[in-house]
């Protein structure tokens, strides 16, 4: 598993121009005309119009699905091209832009019938999350969980604090994986969680450091933080850290604030 870096401003501009270029090039060979989608007894029916002034369309059967798909894809690309130009103007004016959200909004602006025929340039968020889970299986740590605690999702974790984090992530609908396998500097590690920011599609590590008032445990915590930093996972960027002591257990309020700060 590798982490996806946050897109900085320069990379954002390049990404927007790249998407615009992809759309414009594909539009050069796009078909002409328009498709109207109707429903008959729960089944979609497509009609083709050479231009918008036509009053009567030509019915297209399932044999024409390739042509129908190409029209729907063209309409999607037209929206992408137009929106990317608008985003460039926003960026130049210093207005914040969420590129992945913008691309999802374009895709989901089409009704389900048309959407099923469109291949988005960037996978939509639902597809992305499914692929993310497929690539990052959880509970990979072979070290046995003694007297584990069950989360709302039905998985066993090692402590009450990890249950708090897992349950609040679920409540906020944040995709997460408990104890995935991660190779860091050629060493196999099992972080407490990896989590996905759906808005930026960035993957972050969440480590909970308990018993920080215990000297031996604190040393181990510092060594773990040093390991992450040497590998380029910086606290507050690619790494979320939470802490507790024997007198001050983890507070769900703090967990919520970290979720709001890093994952929403």
What does this structure look like?
The chain is an alpha+beta fold. The chain contains 8 helices and 11 strands. The protein has a 4-stranded mixed sheet, with helices on both faces. A 3-stranded antiparallel sheet has the order 1-2-3, covered by helices on one side. The protein is elongated, with a radius of gyration of 24 Å.
List keywords for this structure.
11 strands, alpha+beta, 3-stranded antiparallel beta sheet, about 260 residues, 4-stranded mixed beta sheet, disordered N terminus
Provide a quick synopsis of the model:
With 264 residues, this protein is α+β, with helices and mostly antiparallel strands.
As a percent range, the share of strand residues is 15-25%
Which series of helices and strands comes N to C?
HEEEHHHHEEHEEEEEHEH
State the major sheet.
4 strands, mixed
For the termini, the CA-CA separation is 22 Å
Please identify the oligomeric state: single chain
